[in-house]
Amino acid sequence: MARPNEFAAGAKATQSAIPPTEPLSSESCPFCVGHEALTPPAIATDPAGATDHWLVRVVPNKFPALEPAATPRSMEASCWGQVLPGLGTHEVVIESNQHVERTGEISVEQLTSVLRIYRQRLVELARDGRWRYAQVFKNVGKSGGASLAHLHSQILATATVPTTIKTELDHAARHAQATGRCLFCDLIERERSEGVRIVSDEAGVVVLCPFASRLPYETWVLPTAHDSHFEDSSDEMLAALAAKLHAIVKVMEEQLPEAAYNYLIHTAPFDSLRGPHYHWHVEIIPRVTMMAGFELGSGYFINPVSPEKAAAALKRMQLESTSARTLPMS
Ligand SMILES: [Zn+2]
Ligand SMILES: [Zn+2]
Ligand SMILES: [Zn+2]
User: Fold this and answer.
1) Which listed ligand is nearest to 182 at the C-alpha?
2) pTM of the full predicted structure?
């Protein structure tokens, strides 16, 4: 993995705070409580304004993949066409004051506090006016791209809407135009009627392994009531989401090799209308297979575990959460 200073702005890997592969104990870990001086000053904390007795702490990334500029939303013209400069902000959300490495080691209440701070940051980044989108994501394990063991996630705000979101938005907008309904609400209904890819469906949150998923055990978590913007979520929704996210991630951490995974929040761009054009959701992607030549060359994915099998296995594993069994890989 590249060191943070090996790429131009905008092309850096999303590593956080220190160069990768540097072993850290809790004594030297910059994210542990008591070591606040090792990071830039906090942008936000829970409780607000806490300097030492904090539960969650948000700091600017010391090695940002993107940097703010005086002239946001500008584009540089070149022989390559319009080149997007690496404009944005890059924040690290430290999810515990203790040196824990897994979501399963923190409580559901603590994860709720993390989700609430995501919401708070998205509200504030939207208010800033320079950014159109903020990608919340988490890298866990070496193949998940994590550079620091202490449990953390990241928020990258950008002046443009990322391609993946744009593709999802375009599909959803076409569907809304043709039917007047939300693509994701319809997907939930279709999955409910078939039932075979649903892991759980309660308390206003549905967990499913999507039809024709790209990667083994790819799992989506969606609010069942329509909502386009994550930052509009109620406290109740975030508590319900935390419970489901905690349960599913804990299973993956217990059952998957080296517990490498990513999760990310997909939400509507800040400046888009509240409507049926998008429905926020969390995508959880365990890193159990490598992207190889065929995937890179064709954009097609060979998934050895069908979503039906993945959903059934995750459902079973959730019930027997601390068992030593492993998830089937074919
Ligand atoms: Zn630590
Ligand atoms: Zn919807
Ligand atoms: Zn998505």
Assistant:
1) 2
2) 0.85
